[in-house]
Amino acid sequence: MKATAVAPSNIAFIKYWGKENSDFRLPLNSSFSMNLSETYTTTTVEFSPSYKNDDVVFVGGEFSVRETERVTDALGKMREKTRTHSYARVKTKNTFPKGTGIAASASGFAALTVAGFAALGFSLSEKDLTIFARLCSGSACRSIPDGFVLWEKGDSSETSYARSLYPHTYWDLSDVLVIVDAKMKKVPTTEGQMRVQTSPFWKQRMQKIPERMKKVQTAFEEKNFSLLGETIEEECLSMHEVMQTQVPPLFYWNDLTRKLMKLIQTWRSEGLPVYFTIDAGPNVHCIVEKKHVALLQEKLQTVSGIHAVIVNSAAPGAHVIPQHLW
Ligand code: DP6
Description:
Blueprint: E1 2-14, E2 19-21, E3 26-27, E4 31-48, E5 55-58, H1 65-82, E6 87-94, H2 104-119, H3 126-136, E7 148-151, E8 162-166, E9 173-179, H4 189-193, H5 202-222, H6 225-245, H7 255-269, E10 274-277, E11 284-289, H8 293-300, E12 308-313, E13 319-321
Bound molecules: ligand DP6.
Residues 12, 15-17, 25, 31, 103, 105, 137-139, 189-190, 193, 279-280 line the site of ligand DP6.
């Protein structure tokens, strides 16, 4: 009745911002992401008939009431699905600060899903694991399959799931993640997404997504790095344009975020092929091919105010490991 899983966070190249159905977390559009090797969650889950309630421990920090509720809700859904009555003990730890735009809910709910069902000895296909994780947090479904992952929008809970388009070994891409601020973000993504339709630009963004998705897929087929980079930068800016014009507006960037965005353009014009993407937080994900990581790191060393730099490569999806957290 005890199992442990590791799940990577992921960075979306084509992003998920807005839901068609919030109860089932059906997204407005399909999205595509890369699993990250160094920013991951490890979670141990143990169910026992002797436990009187669910107990959730976050190593090295604390969960808010809302976060704890999301975990116990997920455990409740797991019990329902497996017809179990036992409560659970959950211990979870991240390799990165949560709430800073590194998708902690993605790796967190992917690890919880995989560890939880394994602890219950309940075997689910990868597709069904991604569907369960999606119900807990949309982006979590993309942290279960290997490498570069497509979350098909679908039109029902059964058809909205994630699958690997390319294994993590397919392309030597790196995400050099620049942490510019390690504090909690103020507006959680679930809340922010509820107001997407108040932006005058959300429809335009939706119209562009299929074309961008195609470009990203072509870039992958051809390993065309500049096509990939141009498309993901455009996509990132279009999501932030929607965020910033929602009512009330959401500003996730700070001064250092903007400075880095400009520097990346400059470095590119000087011959370093690097592009940025940013999620719901101020940190900047610099996407480069592995052969250019060292030069990018040198450039980043000249920028003051950076909290930390984490060099990620593409990673496998969530999986069970034999060592438990207790
Ligand atoms: C900006 O998956 O955190 O990172 O489904 O409400 O839990 P919920 O939202 P969440 O949203 C992630 C938004 C994003 C873009 C992305 O990862 O695609």
